[in-house]
Amino acid sequence: NHPIFLPIKENLLRSEIDSFFEENKIIPNVIAEIEAAELMRLFILSGKGVGIASKISLMNEVNKNSVKKLGCLKNLKEKFYAVTRSKINQKSLLNDMLEKFKQGPC
Questions:
Q1: How many Å apart are CA 15 and CA 23, to the nearest integer?
Q2: What is the DSSP string of 39-96?
Q3: Residue 68 region by backbone torsions, left for phi larger than 0, else alpha for psi between -120 and 50, else beta
Q4: Which residues on adjacent β-strands are paired with residue 34?
Q5: Residues 6 or more apart from 14 whose CB is under 8 A from it?
Q6: Side-chain half-sphere of 41: how many Cα atoms within 13 Å?
Q7: What global pTM score does this model have?
Q8: 51 forms bridges with which residues in the sheet?
Q9: N vs C: which end of the chain shows fewer Cβ within 10 Å?
Q10: Are 33 and 9 in contact (CB under 8 A)?
Protein backbone atom coordinates (compact mmCIF):
# COMPACT_ATOMS: atom_id res chain seq x y z
CA ASN A 1 0.00 0.00 0.00
CA HIS A 2 1.70 3.19 -1.21
CA PRO A 3 1.79 6.20 1.10
CA ILE A 4 -0.71 8.84 0.04
CA PHE A 5 -1.23 12.54 0.71
CA LEU A 6 -4.87 13.63 0.90
CA PRO A 7 -6.66 16.94 1.34
CA ILE A 8 -7.90 17.64 4.85
CA LYS A 9 -11.34 16.29 5.78
CA GLU A 10 -12.84 19.80 5.60
CA ASN A 11 -11.87 20.08 1.91
CA LEU A 12 -14.89 19.72 -0.39
CA LEU A 13 -13.14 17.05 -2.46
CA ARG A 14 -12.19 14.88 0.49
CA SER A 15 -15.63 13.29 0.91
CA GLU A 16 -15.66 12.41 -2.80
CA ILE A 17 -12.16 10.93 -2.55
CA ASP A 18 -13.13 8.93 0.54
CA SER A 19 -16.25 7.66 -1.27
CA PHE A 20 -14.10 6.59 -4.22
CA PHE A 21 -11.84 4.59 -1.90
CA GLU A 22 -14.81 3.01 -0.14
CA GLU A 23 -16.62 2.09 -3.37
CA ASN A 24 -13.44 0.51 -4.75
CA LYS A 25 -12.58 -1.24 -1.46
CA ILE A 26 -9.29 0.63 -1.17
CA ILE A 27 -7.80 1.30 2.25
CA PRO A 28 -5.41 4.22 1.73
CA ASN A 29 -2.15 4.52 3.65
CA VAL A 30 -2.63 8.21 4.49
CA ILE A 31 0.64 9.75 5.67
CA ALA A 32 -0.48 13.39 5.62
CA GLU A 33 -3.65 15.44 5.33
CA ILE A 34 -2.84 18.68 3.59
CA GLU A 35 -4.83 21.91 3.49
CA ALA A 36 -3.27 24.00 0.71
CA ALA A 37 -2.86 23.05 -2.96
CA GLU A 38 0.69 24.43 -3.11
CA LEU A 39 1.67 22.42 -0.04
CA MET A 40 0.14 19.30 -1.65
CA ARG A 41 2.24 20.00 -4.73
CA LEU A 42 5.41 20.21 -2.63
CA PHE A 43 4.64 16.97 -0.80
CA ILE A 44 4.04 15.19 -4.12
CA LEU A 45 7.32 16.57 -5.51
CA SER A 46 9.15 15.28 -2.43
CA GLY A 47 8.69 11.77 -3.85
CA LYS A 48 7.63 10.36 -0.49
CA GLY A 49 4.13 9.38 -1.58
CA VAL A 50 1.27 9.63 -4.03
CA GLY A 51 -1.03 12.62 -4.00
CA ILE A 52 -4.29 13.71 -5.55
CA ALA A 53 -3.94 17.13 -7.11
CA SER A 54 -5.63 19.22 -9.76
CA LYS A 55 -4.22 19.07 -13.26
CA ILE A 56 -3.35 22.75 -13.21
CA SER A 57 -1.33 22.55 -9.98
CA LEU A 58 1.19 20.12 -11.50
CA MET A 59 0.94 21.00 -15.20
CA ASN A 60 4.57 22.16 -15.49
CA GLU A 61 5.89 19.07 -13.74
CA VAL A 62 3.78 16.71 -15.89
CA ASN A 63 4.98 18.47 -19.07
CA LYS A 64 8.62 18.15 -17.93
CA ASN A 65 8.09 14.50 -16.90
CA SER A 66 9.12 15.39 -13.34
CA VAL A 67 6.06 13.52 -12.07
CA LYS A 68 4.07 10.67 -13.52
CA LYS A 69 0.31 10.95 -13.91
CA LEU A 70 -1.09 7.67 -12.60
CA GLY A 71 -4.68 8.29 -13.58
CA CYS A 72 -7.60 10.63 -13.56
CA LEU A 73 -10.48 10.58 -11.10
CA LYS A 74 -13.08 11.86 -13.54
CA ASN A 75 -15.98 12.03 -11.09
CA LEU A 76 -14.16 14.48 -8.82
CA LYS A 77 -15.07 18.09 -9.36
CA GLU A 78 -13.72 21.22 -7.77
CA LYS A 79 -14.86 24.79 -8.18
CA PHE A 80 -12.37 27.37 -9.40
CA TYR A 81 -13.14 31.07 -9.60
CA ALA A 82 -11.85 33.77 -11.92
CA VAL A 83 -11.21 36.73 -9.63
CA THR A 84 -9.64 40.16 -9.69
CA ARG A 85 -9.02 42.86 -7.11
CA SER A 86 -9.77 45.68 -9.54
CA LYS A 87 -12.94 46.56 -11.40
CA ILE A 88 -12.58 45.48 -15.01
CA ASN A 89 -15.02 45.18 -17.84
CA GLN A 90 -13.60 42.39 -19.94
CA LYS A 91 -16.67 40.26 -20.52
CA SER A 92 -15.24 38.60 -23.65
CA LEU A 93 -12.06 37.55 -21.80
CA LEU A 94 -14.15 35.98 -19.05
CA ASN A 95 -16.39 34.22 -21.59
CA ASP A 96 -13.32 32.81 -23.39
CA MET A 97 -11.92 31.56 -20.08
CA LEU A 98 -15.20 29.92 -19.10
CA GLU A 99 -15.42 28.14 -22.47
CA LYS A 100 -11.90 26.73 -21.96
CA PHE A 101 -12.84 25.58 -18.43
CA LYS A 102 -15.85 23.70 -19.82
CA GLN A 103 -13.78 21.60 -22.25
CA GLY A 104 -14.00 18.44 -20.20
CA PRO A 105 -12.09 16.74 -17.41
CA CYS A 106 -8.40 15.86 -17.35
A1: 12
A2: HHHHHHHTTSSEE---TGGGHHHHHTTSS------TT---------SS----HHHHHH
A3: beta
A4: 7
A5: 6, 7, 8
A6: 13
A7: 0.68
A8: 5
A9: N
A10: yes
